[in-house]
Amino acid sequence: MPDFGFVGESKARELFGDKRYEATRTNAPAGRRRDLIRLADSVVFGQVYPRPGLTPEQRSLSTVAALTVLGQLPQLRAHVTGALNVGVSEDEIAEVITQMAMYAGFPAALNAMQVADECFDAVATERKK
To answer: pTM of the full predicted structure?
Structure first.
């Protein structure tokens, strides 16, 4: 398989941090899953995230909104942490999730808020170290 990982690697590392990047990408088992992750990184972080028109904060909030509506909690966890890494506040993330309750329903928003709260706690603990 072609190696798509290098195009978006720096942008993904900026969003997720080196530790999370290494855990989910470099340390992913070899094979199809790793290839798919690298392809996604190449497109998402190599072609879409660097586009003009939205700030990194706006892109992160849009992603949090979409993942909340779709109920994609593992990816939401990563992107809430990423949003905090690029300067989005906990209050802004909570407001986006609350807004999505109108479109995704309260169960999806409540699940997303639980994930966000867990991320807020984890990031605060990590930053204290």
So the answer is: 0.86
